[in-house]
From TrEMBL:
Record-linked InterPro entries: Acyl_CoA_acyltransferase, Bact_Acetyltransf, GNAT_dom
CDD domains per the UniProt record, alphabetical: NAT_SF (cd04301)
Keywords: Acyltransferase, Transferase
Gene3D superfamilies documented for this protein: 3.40.630.30
Keyword Zinc tagged: no
Protein name according to UniProt: GNAT family N-acetyltransferase
Coiled coil: none
PANTHER family xref list: AMINOALKYLPHOSPHONATE N-ACETYLTRANSFERASE-RELATED, AMINOALKYLPHOSPHONATE N-ACETYLTRANSFERASE-RELATED-RELATED
Domain N-acetyltransferase: 12-153
Length: 153
């Protein structure tokens, strides 16, 4: 697997999330600004594990979970091809700047290529300037503006 940038002896392991990872997933989603309880995270992991178009990956260093990425693939009528959408990416605050986010993106790109996906999209809150710089640094270009309407019926 990949190595942490700037460290020759610490490796980053990326693997699929399992139900037993619910506490870590809840913690990381909270860091991203989407808090949930352990049981809610377990339900989300179960949904992803039963949907072949979704992937939820965790990054670990020395067995400690330090990052998460979620990916969804879909057919785009507009593009006439399969595309992948990163629906969440977070690296624990104390672990940022060590290559973990880049390692998660590389894994997403490997999965996408294996599935025949030719385009990956990621959205990021307009206030997350550091995240925008990170994505640009990793080869992602600015794209369309996204509009949202919550249906809180």
């Amino acid at each position: 697997m990949g190595r942490v940038a700037g460290s020759a002896d610490t490796s980053i392991r990326v693997r699929a999330a399992e139900l037993g990872d619910a506490s870590d997933v809840a913690r990381l989603l909270g860091e991203l600004g989407y808090p949930c309880k352990r049981d809610e995270a377990a339900e989300r992991i179960a949904v992803v594990r039963h949907d072949p178009r979704q992937h939820l990956l965790l990054a670990e260093i020395d067995g400690d979970t330090c990052g998460l990425v979620s990916l969804y693939t879909l057919y785009s009528v507009v593009h006439g091809d399969e595309l992948a959408r990163i629906t969440g990416l977070v690296v624990q605050a104390g672990c940022q700047g060590r290559g973990i986010g880049r390692r998660l993106l590389r894994e997403v790109e490997l999965i996408s290529r294996r599935l025949g996906v030719r385009r990956i999209e990621v959205t990021s809150n307009a206030r997350r300037a550091e995240a925008h710089a990170f994505y640009r640094h990793c080869g992602y270009a600015d794209g369309s503006l996204r509009f949202i309407k919550a249906l809180g019926d």
